[in-house]
Amino acid sequence: MKKIKIGLIQQANTADIRFNLMNLAHSIEACAAHGAQLIVLQELHNSLYFCQTEDTALFDLAEPIPGPSTGFYSELAAANKVVLVTSLFEKRAPGLYHNTAVVFDRDGSIAGKYRKMHIPDDPAYYEKFYFTPGDLGFTPIQTSLGKLGVLVCWDQWYPEAARLMALRGAEILIYPTAIGWESTDTDEEKKRQLGAWIISQRAHAVANGLPVVSVNRVGHEPDPSGQTNGIQFWGNSFVAGPQGELLAQAANDRPENIVVEVDMERSENVRRWWPFLRDRRIDEFEGLTKRYLD
């Protein structure tokens, strides 16, 4: 049976990028020491979540790929002999930036990258100001552990993205994430939002017969503009199996590292029991390429 141990690093970030990097390095080493073969980091893990405001000076946080951060994480992947999924602010060219996941193989080489396709633009999540939508498609990244269907945060609400990754042979769906509550939301609304977030991703696991790994940041990050009370990132990083079963879940109020074993061969059995890919009516799905069917 093919089983792999997956490490999830749920971190609370500070304004000190060097401090954040050292925390991540220690956590990667700790997960590897507990047997993790694949380690997933949260979205934009080097810094605070800077998209709460629109500020052209913050483009200085972006880096080329390859660049300083890819060098740093390449060394960590090789030293710990792990496949590592990172999330970086990519400077592709002057005035052209992406929210980019970079995957490193166990020898430290860059196995591939994915540029976030769905870009939100909501209060406190002004990502369209910073990121150009991805142009690499929904293509799994081949690693020594298998094909990883890496997507990023807002992508997790779109079943089409998960499906296209599955149709291209992804063996697992992975979502580096940055999502949380605004303080003015009621407790009931907070529960609904968190529940919807978990349900949506567990549904991708079920519909595609694949494990899902979602790694969120945690802790409060203030709004530099003072227009809101900032974001309380809700953590709850989790791993779900191919029937949506929760295999592990982190807390909502503290940093946490989790290492969980996932049986990668269960997908084959689940897809035999529930052959959703067999029964898709692809002859009737043309409407999915339209914005809306009037």
Write up what this structure looks like.
The chain is of the alpha/beta class. It has one domain: Carbon-nitrogen hydrolase (Nitrilase/N-carbamoyl-D-aminoacid amidohydrolase). Helices cover 23% and strands 28% of the residues. It has helices at residues 17-33, 68-80, 159-167, 187-208, 266-273; strands at 3-10, 38-41, 83-93, 96-104, 110-115, 141-143, 146-150, 172-177, 180-182, 212-216, 218-221, 231-234, 238-240, 246-249, 256-263. The strands form three sheets. A six-stranded mixed sheet has the order 5-4-3-2-1-15. A six-stranded mixed sheet has the order 6-7-8-10-13-14, with helices on one face. A hairpin with a 5-residue loop joins strand 13 and strand 14. Helix 3 runs parallel beside helix 4. The longest helix is centred in the last third of the chain and has 22 residues, at 187-208.
